[in-house]
Amino acid sequence: KSRDKNDKSSDAVEAYDKALEAATTPEDKARIYYNKAVVLHNQKKLPECVEAYKAALKINPADEDARLNLQKALQQVKQKQQQEKQPKKPKEDPKKKEKEKKKDEEKNNNELPKPQPSRLSKQEAEEKLKALMQQEKNLQEKLRKVNAASVSKPEKDW
Length: 158
What we know:
Strand content: under 5%
Shape: extended
Oligomer: single chain
């Protein structure tokens, strides 16, 4: 018999529930809650997943993996809620979108980018420019020394 992934995942959640009843140490319970949360997360059962991660963290507050995964799950819950709040837009004709995109590209190609106002004063900009020029000068000098040193060495005549 072939079983699909959801059946196996549901079986896994049930197995974790049974294991929780049989678990004797807090460490085991924390691991079981964590693993159950991972399965629920993969099933996209976010509310149950969040609860399982919270249960794992109550038992073992030092579990960083559980903390990170809980944060991810909470972010996904928040995104899902925001998507549900936004009214769905009617689907647009793909050809219409393509035409609009071409118009935007043509418009952008014809317009020059506007210069951004500088955050530096004129004096600060000149000082930075001088510093950069001095660095460039030093670098060029080092390169000349390296090149001069390598040229003066005689080639080996084997």
